[in-house]
Records
---
Amino acid sequence: MKKIKLITLVTLALTAALGITSCGGGAPATETGSTSAGVYRTIDEIKESGEINIGVFSDKHPFGYVDENSEYQGYDVYFAKRIGEDLGVKVNFVSTEAANRIEYLKTGKVDVVLANFTVTPERAEEVDFALPYMNVSLGVVSPESKPVTSLDDWNADDEMIVISGTTAETYLTQNYPNIKLQKYDTYANAKSALENGSAAAWANDNTEVIAYSLSTTGYTVGIPTLGSKDTIAPAVSKGNESVLNWLNDEITSLGEEKFFHADYEATLADTYGLDYEEELVIEGGAAAE
Amino acid sequence: MPDLGLDVLFKGKNMIRLLGGLWVAVRISLIAVAISIPLGILLGIVMTSKNPIVKVITRVYLEFVRIMPQLVLLFIVFFGATSALGINISGELSSIIVFTVWGTAEMSDLVRGALISIPKHQYESAAALTLTPSQTYLYVIIPQTVRRLVPLSINLITRMIKTTSLILMIGVVEVLKVAQQIIEANRMSSPNAAFGVYLTVLLMYFIICWPISMLAKRLEKKWG
């Protein structure tokens, strides 16, 4: 008797739970059409309120981080501050995580996300991306004495270091199945493996390997771009044409004064050096290729 | 001694920022505790009711809050309330709401358990001594219940303090988030900082939670 009661109760609770979650997931889709004005703010509403909410990372040095004086800094933040200046409003930085960036836009809790947001077709179905302002791809770092500049004539005995779960691992497994991989869980372990000479090279996001080669003597980035070239762009709530168009115009006009080069030099040059500026920066929203 | 990167804690305002983050976590959990303990006691008493409707409603509430991970509850309140109802609740208020709802549920179950654990003969003996029902509660049942409740509710309070580490997912910058910010901002200059900074955070949680459990021990001894 007691058991049956418990089962009915659990079922009831689960139905209630499902009801709420499906409601949470389904509502925005139906609501964006009818009450679009409620979900996000237009550029005029932002100007009127005197404040813009911009979602940035607070722990991704050097793109978006908080320095020791509690100030937001970095490549994304530099751009965010300029947006605030040009709109004539105060910038309200919201600390976002990789996992909740889309949700912040879907609920209109931020007006723009500038959090190292890589453009992908899946994400583009849920948010609208403006013109890109940075390139990302994979890179390979190797010892200067024996640089790896191509993966096509890979020596069967050599191994490649990757960090488990990164795009580098997926890319190499799919496209170069003959390369033996040495997998590590953390950045620190991968780093010491390369320094101990246990593998021929290390593949990772190109920004990571560039930063590594610059901070460690004796290593060079033989392959600075590998695999598909992705871009990083600001994102706004789906359908927010007003802010999207303003951002696109802003990025285009900032191209004339080489704004993103200045941004790179102010925020990224310390980490990535000036050699890779042209590889990484996209000016005026025009991708290099 | 290995380099733990503790020097990053003394850069700029880092230590004050960490303590500020700790205060955010403690403030949110203490407000939630202060609201959920009285509510939980009331609800726990209601839960001992024989009325089947009351039983089903309270049971559904309790099971629902227990089954849902706290992170999901936080997302439902923070994002769900905005997308479904159009109400914009700040991250900190969402956290207080979720921790209160959760704390009340857990507390009510503890109270219910403590109340029904008092043997029936205690009520009967009190009645035989011609105590009225309210006198029975005041002099016989409540003192025994409280004694059983103290260690359990202290355990709940420390659990609530520690669970605040989830609220960084809804944009509240508490101690753990500040720690991650400090580690990442110094990733290139002191790559080993993670260990030292997390160790400091561990000590901070300990310094907050340890006196609370010591207090519980003392109360238990005093009343035991």
---
Amino acid sequence: MAICTVYTTQLNPTCSSISTPSKPQHLGFHQNQVVFYKKTSNYKRSKSAARPSYLITCAAAGGDSQTVVIGLAADSGCGKSTFMRRLTSVFGGAAEPPKGGNPDSNTLISDTTTVICLDDYHSLDRTGRKEKGVTALDPRANDFDLMYDQVKALKDGVAVDKPIYNHVTGLLDPPELIKPPKILVIEGLHPMYDSRVRDLLDFSIYLDISNEVKFAWKIQRDMAERGHSLESIKASIEARKPDFDAYIDPQKQYADAVIEVLPTQLIPDDNEGKVLRVKLIMKEGVEFFSPVYLFDEGSTISWIPCGRKLTCSYPGIKFTYGPDSYYGHEVSVLEMDGQFDRLDELIYVESHLSNISTKFYGEVTQQMLKHSDFPGSNNGTGLFQTIVGLKIRDLYEQITTSKTQTPAQATKA
Amino acid sequence: MATTMAGVNLSAPRIAAKSGVEPPKPHAFIRIQPWSFNKRLTHGRMMVVRPVMAAPDKLSDKVAESVKNAEDACSENPASGECVAAWDEVEELSAAASHARDKQKSSDALEEYCKDNPEADECRTYED
């Protein structure tokens, strides 16, 4: 379907793309070729090779469709994968690794959505980082030029050959072909770090896990692992913290939605990190995104659903909602403290929330039940992740609808 | 099997996102087993600890080795880039091991079977 032309012209050192719109051959499709020139000096495997390597990608992209790009930022071990599974589930169809590809690929593909992991844009592999004494959190370990070029290309409907960072070996594997999907999710440590990449995002989410909860989650994740101890888990979090604070945390100011996970306030001095208080911070004035609200939009509300109509067990459930300011932006904040013990509690809560972009009554509950084995299905993390998934579906539908109505205007947006 | 909780039966036409790639199924029934719902959703408080399978051996070895390396690297100078990078490697490998465990779990035939047949004898779980 695509006609590929390999260009051997001299390209500038970072990246060039050559677009050659040819005569429409297949129902108005355009033929685009993009050639990425990539510095490979940082690649362990090509150290000895003096010649630069060229990545050549050819793709036929539908001229009438544009990819909607979503960014998800969070530290490692903070629930990005769970969120991705919830999000792709909202769109229907299971997300799976590319068939017949590298078994260590970090990509997930479903009918509508492709999720790529930004670790694939590491410019330094594990050995390189060790030699230079930098973490993966450090921008110097990441190739933002290539990240920008490839996300831009995908957004414009052009397939790319994306590198694969192998988390098992710590090496960069040969690239995989990524075709422009309807929805592209870029998840990782730095989706909002580089302003050029940030400007490509139609919507962005930051998962903000408080130190207490992060520690509790990593204990849960790693304690059974041989070689690990409480001390090693703590040491790892503390060693990474300066880079995390410098390069990852500041991205939350750019996010359209932040999911903040904190220890509960329902149990005094709770340090277990099992009962959680979760905030959904939603930016006002974002195109195609209208924040969820409780009872009365814009008012400040505190709500304990447990009472005569609904019985909850200890420590109960508490919601708060209201307008607030976040890094100088006007936001709406919805907070849930506590956890659901029974199905009717979840349904009761869902029926009292407004603007959740469901397509039928009980859709949030249905999604939560479908994945009741995922972490957080009984608390605010699962609830808000599901709601954000529904809001993204709504955003996607609005963007595609607005484009078909006013194509000229939509290109700008 | 078809027990519903408090008369709640979620049955709804599944609406696929605009794509229309997936033909909408007429009905998506969710059957709720009160006890299984309870168990799955409250593992926090009820302390149902799911068995943690060891990650594939190769990764487990790597995690253990990386922890040791980090401890060594930091014994000389805890503020050095070398020390920080070593602990970052520990995090990366621990996350990879955890993902590998999840992958293994989801490819477990018994788990899959029990998702569909939670009432079967072989799918029973017990609490101490």
